[in-house]
Amino acid sequence: MSEECCGPEEPRKTVTPVKRQPLSRPLAPSDDACCGPEPVVGASTRSADSPRHDDGDACCGPDEATHGHDEEKVRPPLWRDPAMLPSAISGVALALGYLFDWTGLGVPALIVQWIALLVGAYTFVPSAIRRLLRGRLGVGLLMTIGAVGGVALGYVGEAAALAFLFSLAESLEHRAMDRAKEGLRALLSLIPETVRVSRLSGDVTIPAADVRELDILVVGAGERIATDGVVVEGRSSIDTSAVTGESIPVEVAPGDEVIAGSVNGSATLRIEATADGRDNSLTQIVALVEQAHARKGERARMADRIARPLVPTVLILAGLVVVFGFIVGDPGLWLERALVVLVAASPCALAIAVPVTVISAIGAASKFGVIIKSGEAFEQFGTIRTVVFDKTGTLTRNEPQVVDVETAPGHSRDDVLALAASLEATSVHPLAAAITAAAPRAEAATDVVEEAGHGLHGRVGAVRVRVGNARWLDPEMLRERAEAMAGQGMTVVVVETDGRVAGLIGVRDELRPEAAETIAMLHERGIRTVMLTGDNELTARAIAAQAGITDVRAEQLPKDKADAIAALVAEGPTAMVGDGINDAPALATATVGIAMGLTGSAAAIESADIAFTGHDLRLIPGALAHARRGRRIMTVNIGLALALIIVLFPIALLGVLGLAGVVLVHEIAEVIVILNGVRAARRPASTRLPATAATPAPALERV
What we know:
The chain is of the alpha+beta class. It is built from 22 helices and 22 strands. A hairpin with a 2-residue loop joins strand 16 and strand 17. It is elongated, with a radius of gyration of 31 Å.
């Protein structure tokens, strides 16, 4: 589990979420789960031949990691879970002991009480001792001392009750953790066990893990796609809802990209793999979520600061109570009180208050396409008051098209498009793709040079041609028309021949159909929205108006975007949403960086704290609501845990409750904290995406 009571976590580097260990290899056992996060994927339900918990410490987690993907099983019902067996045996024996004691059968009562004590203690005493030998203190040690002290004072029944209740609370806690992690393990089940691959000799079936880049996969109707790829033959629709959270099937044809875990529709597809079977977008999702424990959030650190010193403090206080007993001449009474104080003040509930909630919430988020890299990111996400959007590829589809051409006297529409396409054929900018698509048979240009942030110049035959934005090339007599085109949300490309303007090309990138709805949802929740773009002011404002954003920062270079985000962060918690390389500095500067789509640039994904596996912007308001709810649950849990210690400590010190009573109240409170934390796993209704009609199109600037 978590390490709150066990000493500081060793510094860790954030793992680059692009590569992942093969799924077929079992995860290596952890050296000490107390000192680091338990691997999410490997946290499968314990096997029947190993029902006991190795974790003698409610705050320290199991000593050994369970095995990998091959051994993951569906979590059985509570009454059939072998991990609950020791607690069940201890509970039944304890009940029999009380029954025998009530009927006057003293010896049988003592025997079954000892059975209850030994079976219950077996789940936490050995690992508590191992940790003590390694110099680590934990709640399991406090419970061990309490049980030993109870037996020494003749309270075998009370010691048995302590062992049973603590064992039960631990079993429920582990079960809650397993439940929270099931969402992530379910992602791995989206990868089929085998896949058909086209060979020269015919189709052969191989393990999905053996697929290599450039293999041709044959995916039949209703089958899952084993790895990322590009369709090379066939037309169909694919269902990506399990991976991206987008419920509407996507039509695909040759040349279209598909992602691992998607379900093919009604026709057979041949897909060229663009990633190995063990290293694709789906395994990348798993790798991202496995980092969720690497960094702690504010509330987790607060729980650390409180819980970590509490264990030695409780031991010292219990020792002082014993010393006081010798001073006043009644050591037996005060030794008993010391044991009760030791149990009452143990920070077990506090130690699990945050981890159960964070793991539950992050696991739930992964089910609807929101991959949160750390507990810290999750908690900070719940504080966001401003969301900043990049334009290109985030608010827009990043699929620009030529929508208008204005010509100067002496030039035709086709001439202007052909001249521009001749130069743009050498460029990889999205604008270039739009222009070359509009004039695919253009003559090849020579001596082409690209001026970064401006455009290109070169020769088409004997004509000197320049193509670029209106900040670089003066539209001259077409200036008014250029401004009008920009006001309609177009990016204006100026075409110049031999030093004179030949015409204007209006390129527009379609606004995502859900963009305006998303902005409206954020505004309803009191979230401020801002748009950052490299476009000119007119184009940027036209696009922002269609989306419903009033705060627009135009003509921003990557450094300008980062500076703007830094200024907004100084005003309050700010999230930045982007997907390109030029967004990486801003994503890293924001309180929370959000990368849209795992097919975005690697720089953007690496710089971001949260990655959306799909592109539907409506997930943002739902994810924000999910994070806010999780923060509320964490706050309540911490408050409950602290209130428990504050109330029980004086009650225990004054002798109002005995050992059995304090143990019962303490463990009931711990179960309440666990159950409350598990509530964070519920999927918010706002993350279920409705169908939305398309919206008019905006523009893209060359930056």
